[in-house]
Amino acid sequence: MLALTVVAVPATAAPPLPDKDPVATGTGGAVATVDPLATDAGLDILRRGGNAIDAAVAAAAVLGVTEPYSAGIGGGGFMVIYLADESRVVTIDGREEAPSDPDFDEDVFLEDGVPIPFFPERITSGLAVGVPGTFATWVRALEEYGTISLSQALQPGRVVAQTGFVVDQTFADQTLGNLERFRAITSTADTFLVDGEVPAVGSVFRNRDLADTYKLLQREGLAGFYGGELAREIIDTVQNPPTVASPPFEVRAGLMVLDDLAQYQVLEPDPTMIEYRGYEVYGMGPPSSGGITVGEALNIGESFPLATVDDVAFQHHVLEATALAFADRNAYIGDNRPQYSYVPITGLLSQGFADVRAALIDPATAAAKPVAPGDPCGFDGDPQCVPDAAALAGPAGTSTTHLVTADQWGNVVSYTLTIEATGGSAITVPGRGFLLNNELTDFNATGTGPNLPEPGKRPRSSMSPTIVLDDGAPFLAVGSPGGSTIITTVAAILFNRFDRGMGLPEAIAAPRATQRNTSAVLAEADYRALYGAALEALGHTVADTSEIGAATGLEFLPDGRILAAAEPVRRGGGDAGVVRPTKR
Q: Is 514 a domain residue?
């Protein structure tokens, strides 16, 4: 095991916020996150001889402090790992899970046959909280694939929680957007507000409760979260949300019990894999829909000469491909454990099925949306596959965070983690400093299909951590936050990189739109200015949205260097770093 010094936590003011650099090139390893303190934590681990898995966990633990409304130990996520010494890709499913109570059934989010209002009531409730999987993911990753101890990996996050970080505009805006919800929960107001108000931009924000929680977990490990006093406090918070005396909306109690925490397990399913333009694209399988839906969209795109068409035709084909892939996602993807549903992964990812779907794309006219799902069963070969004609997408939160790491030995991590909506359930475990997720609202509240609530089930996710290999060697890793727009963001970055000749930073920074089999394409302002009128002439309806995603990625260059890239602007910009920088 790598010997890293665990230093005492100083009770001093936070250092000035480091500048963000969205692009870095060099050797020795790389990290890209949305936050410079998290990137620095990962790089420090790499400089001390840790590997990419160690760096990913350390960076994620810092993001749990500086990005508490997007990620943290109250949530879950998916990790895709390339292991250089074994030349293989493995995945860790740390998705949140529904409680085992039989009352958590397909009617759980209905009252008098009508869905509980999504915002603020359904998301701000104990009913929305799934059994968290993030901490178990960190433990599994370090024990199976890392080189440092859990205590060492948590230490950078503990230091940042204790000493604080400088509040930026993004943090203040996210707090403001949750102000009513946060004020309704006493523990959340105590933790994240200052005298009931948003922390001032430029002030130092400290979360000493979370520092103490990390210290507890450094000492007690997995059992400290899923058993003991902290577990009892989590359950009490879910069952008895700590609201103010007269909250402005109803905050419902949840059904989670101690056994749900004690019995939680991370899983290691097979990754998804497709070949695109000669590259091997690996992603996350169910209950994430990311690997399958990104893969199907790419397979559909492979039917067209996207490198040679004009820009409008390229965008048209990408939008149509993602709409078709989303129709199939909604119909067929859910928790694919035998007690829940069968997901026809082979059929959905077959090139034959993609070719059938691609034949529906008219180069001159957009299809009316929503389009119907296809029938992958003839390409799947399993009698459990049953065609589905009408399943709904369901809601999906827009908050999440993504990071990528690589080390000097060629190991790579692409990791997406979340607490679902920005601010999660808005319910903080009293005295513990972290928000609980609202991930169970990713289940469909009504309708049909594989994503209805059931006891112990994991809701469908859109997280799409992706690793691309070139002839079996790591070439690229990418991912993004953004709810169901994660899928279209990752697909667009890959299409941009492989079909339009963009470098990775340009592919990440390019204007975005998202078509998820909805009546309108949602587009950023720059995208609409470039393509909106021409796409509308083809029959697309293009509507405005503020921003889509906040991606990070890395690429192995032919000369042996690594290029790390993050957003230059979206979500306040991200930060990329390498161990030994060189000029780009």
A: yes
- Rounded Cα distance between 81 and 474, Å, is 10
Model pTM greater than 0.85?
yes
What is the enclosing helix (H) or strand (E) of 26?
Answer: strand 23-33
List the structure tokens of 291: 């690997």
- Show which residues are catalytic: 400
Sequence-distant (≥ 6) Cβ neighbours of residue 98 within 8 angstroms: 104, 130, 131, 440, 443, 453, 454, 455, 456, 457, 458, 459
Considering its fold, how many domains does the chain have in total? 2
- The answer to whether residue 116 sits within a structural domain is yes
Which single residue is written with the structure tokens 């475990």? 429
Rounded Cα distance, 223 and 133, in Å? 13
Q: Indicate whether 219 and 319 sit together in one domain.
A: no
Q: Which amino acid is at 251?
A: V
Q: Is 165 in the same domain as 231?
A: yes
16 has pLDDT over 90: no
- Provide the domain limits for residue 294: 272-396+482-548
Pull the structure tokens for residue 484.
């169901």
3-state secondary structure 441-483: HHCCCCCCCCCCCCCCCCCCECCCCEEEEECCEEEEEEECCCC
**Which pLDDT tens digit goes with each residue over 383-420?**
999 987 665 555 544 568 999 999 999 999 999 999 99
Lookup: tokens for 108: 């759980």
Chain segment 47-71, per-residue pLDDT in tens: 999 999 999 999 999 999 999 999 9
